[in-house]
Amino acid sequence: MKIGDSVKVKKGVKDVESNSFDMENWQGRIIDIEKDENANEISLVLIAWDSQTLKQILDNYIIESEEDGSDWSEYFLYPDDVILTEERDTPADVDEIIGKLKNKFAYANLGEAGKRIMKIIKETDTDETEKIYERWKNYLEKNFIFPQKMKIAEFQENYKFSQGDVINVKNLNIIDDHYGIIISGKWKNESVDFPLCDLEVINKKSKNYQIVKDYAVWFANKW
Questions:
Q1: Cβ distance 120 to 138 under 8 Å?
Q2: Residue ranges of the domains in the chain?
Q3: Which of 69, 137, 166, 203 has its CA 20 to 30 A from that of 59?
Q4: Statement: residue 19 has pLDDT above 70
């Protein structure tokens, strides 16, 4: 075996971390080889999965890999776990599918919040910020219950507002390029507009609490 060879995983081989993902017939290219210095034999091969394998990998496998901080697009195996085979795609095919999967699972490392976020933004490209804001706004308009008392959860450079101040949110207003979704509400009997990302629902048992929390988590990680 050498770098660049295409290999296929043998029957009975499973993911060593979970022992629950069957890797039989997963296929890819060898991109690195580790040798036993004493025996001068191959001890491990690093396989970059091909596009067809990446298309069939279970969502849960990618999500668990993201949560663990491991790379789901490649894998170390013993040389006895694989056999040589013919390649069935090109590196360009691999790059294309990896790009799509990275968008689909961009927030998988955020745990349960990440799973909810990914359902809301529905595989939108991570650089399509305007479209993602629109999806959030539509989701909030359908699921958020107004009015709602919220507190300022983040330190404010604007001297007018203080962390902990309460705003009675009346409705969603506009989408700002820098601050995201802006709400309209009442603060100390004054009408104000304020970025939703810096707010937190006071009643933690409210349905609104988790919705706003997820939005704030997304906003903090969107860059």
A1: no
A2: 6-105, 113-221
A3: 137
A4: no
Helix (H) or strand (E) holding 34: strand 27-36
Q: How does pLDDT run across 103-162, given as a tens digit for each residue? A: 889 899 998 999 999 999 886 888 888 899 999 999 999 999 999 999 999 988 888 999
What residues have CB less than 8 Å from 203, skipping those under 6 apart? 149, 209
93-120: pLDDT as tens digits: 999 999 999 988 989 999 899 999 999 9
Three-state secondary-structure class, residue 29: strand
Helix axes 111-121, 207-221, angle to 10 degrees: 90
pLDDT at 78 over 70: yes
Assigned fold of 113-221: SH3 type barrels. (2.30.30)
146 vs 16, 169, 184, CA distance in Å?
A: 49, 7, 11
C-alpha span between 114 and 105 (Å, rounded): 9
Amino acid making up residue 119: K
Contacts of 36 (CB under 8 A, 6+ apart): 42, 43
DSSP H or E stretch at residue 174 = strand 166-176
Give the relative orientation of helices 207-221 and 129-143 as an angle to the nearest 10 degrees.
170
Query: Of the candidates 10, 109, 30, which has an alpha carbon nearest to the alpha carbon of residue 67?
Result: 109
Kindly give the interhelix angle for 59-68 and 111-121, rounded to the nearest 10 degrees: 130
